[in-house]
């Protein structure tokens, strides 16, 4: 019956309420007569007082309609509705008494009847509202008591006026959470549904979006809260774009899971996320591709404390591996992700054993024993130095970590008989203009070369420590996954811009025309896992990442979301300025995902397989020997020349050599020359 009532149209619901109220007030009038006369027979089977029994309840219902009682949503009524009911009953009774004086033909009414009708009528309608609302929610007496008494202070509270966008269940929960404190004072709901326009939900009236300017002026509103967790990403993006011109600070609430659990609280209200700003719909995962190489397997994640590595761990543990080895160079990051995984494991009653291992992939003697000791089946290699300027300044360390570290890890996987090896790569590996991109492309080339080797002789002499044979049979499948920038990862522009806005500006952008592709951290991690399942051997996968984003536009939108104005020549009195600092060493104006232009399709409609040229393992080893020798001699120009000469790499550096050691060496040479002069 609850669902049948809930499914009625609003006009029909109003008729049901009016009929219910009339019946309730008619019974109250019967009670008043009975209390006055002592027995029902003296009412003459209602014939003498029929007009009275129709007129007084009818006038009271009309007064309720006039004062807007039927615009309120019954299941969301609060203590404020009591005042509306009291005014309605008083007004209806006053009109009734006036009619009695003006129409002497009506039967006389004892003075005690109106005296009893007034309090009991008010009480009956109030109680009926709360009982009906509680019944619709299927709630207990405790809930009813909280609705009657729990919000008594809300009428006098003073806080920052705020609009709530969304008059559904989420909006009601947010309003209830806000009303328990004095930080915010909700003044109205905004909703796109024209059927809700003019209704009242827990004392707040519902307005259409076009009413926002009027509400801002009337209530001096500076902030609006989005309570629309069920709308898709594109629609949320449109709503945010619609709100931007009003210079409101836009904040948001949690997702549907929290709403469904009824756990929305003030602490969960947050700034609008970058995903909501961009309106990019995350690529949906294919569940069948998530478990094959994880469930009941021993899994190793390198770089487990980083943005991608940690999210990989979160996704992996949900697929119930036998064990999860988290390998990380930073003690602090390892501690954090281990503690978090322990909490997740307990919450899902997982039997997965988690092993936190501190070490560096650049040390072959460390990563090798880990593979064998834990009997690893699947490796997700996320360990890398990824910040472009830092890598430009520290090329030797990047070579050791990003290239040699990948090869050491891959060779260790072959020696240990690992089934699957998945490399986390980057769009900066495509026609790289910086050293970081070059190292990641070299790592891809190394795995592509290894994937075609039936047996290998490891680069390093650590095989002697492992007591392995000179040549090791290769049974490992290698796969690479390439994607763009990850939202809110360490070093991302988003947290940087947010902090700069909160500090009062300016926002620093390297170039007015710089653009980037973006994806979410969970999306990136799921792509890595799914690609590992789809890959055969030596495959490079890329994601259809949608449209690129102009970073300057992103900065302007973030300023607007804080309810602030951009300060520029056209608006010198604005709040936040954008300063252009120039491209950093090795930085591109735009990134690419494919080297060739003929990507192949896969099971996943938004994941593609790149078809690209490669080197043989013997060619690669010879080149690596040259590069390593150049680094040992601190010949940074030779390192660059060697890399530029690799056709399959496509390295075209955009800047002069920026390595700190190289610059220090050049400076010292200049000082010595001046001294000799």
Q: How would you describe what is shown here?
A:
With 677 residues, this protein is α/β, with parallel strands linked by helices. It folds into 3 domains: 2-148, no CATH class; 153-272, NAD(P)-binding Rossmann-like Domain (Rossmann fold, 3-Layer(aba) Sandwich), CATH 3.40.50.720; 287-485 and 519-543 and 593-616, NAD(P)-binding Rossmann-like Domain (Rossmann fold), CATH 3.40.50. Strands 10-9-8-11-12-15-20-25-24 form a 9-stranded mixed β-sheet, sandwiched between helices. Strands 3-4-2-1-5-6-7 form a 7-stranded mixed β-sheet, sandwiched between helices. Helix 12 (307-317) packs across helix 20 and helix 22 (617-632) packs antiparallel against helix 23. The protein starts with a helix and ends with a helix.
Mean of pLDDT:
80
How many E strands?
A: 25
Question: Mind summarizing the main beta sheet?
Answer: 9 strands, mixed
Strand content: 5-15%
**Terminal-residue CA separation:** 100 Å
Strand order of the largest sheet: 10-9-8-11-12-15-20-25-24
> How many structural domains?
3
Number of helices, where a helix is a run of at least 4 consecutive DSSP H or I residues: 24
Q: Which secondary structure elements does this structure contain, and how are they paired or packed?
A:
Elements (H helix, E strand, L loop, with lengths): L1 H5 L3 H28 L12 H17 L14 H22 L9 H26 L3 H9 L10 E6 L3 H10 L5 E7 L9 E2 L2 E4 L4 H8 L3 E4 L6 H11 L5 E4 L3 H6 L8 E2 L2 H5 L19 E5 L4 H11 L5 E6 L2 H17 L5 E6 L5 H10 L4 E4 L6 H6 L1 H22 L3 E5 L10 H17 L3 E2 L5 H5 L5 E2 L3 E6 L2 E2 L6 H10 L4 E3 L5 E2 L1 E2 L1 H14 L4 E5 L5 E2 H11 L4 E2 L8 E5 L19 E2 L5 E4 L6 H16 L3 H9 L15 H17 L1
Parallel strand pairs: 1-2, 1-5, 2-4, 5-6, 8-9, 8-11, 9-10, 11-12, 12-15, 15-20, 16-19, 17-23, 22-23
Antiparallel strand pairs: 3-4, 6-7, 13-14, 18-21, 20-25, 24-25
Helix pairs in contact: 2-3, 2-5, 3-4, 4-5, 12-13, 12-20, 14-16, 16-17, 19-21, 22-23
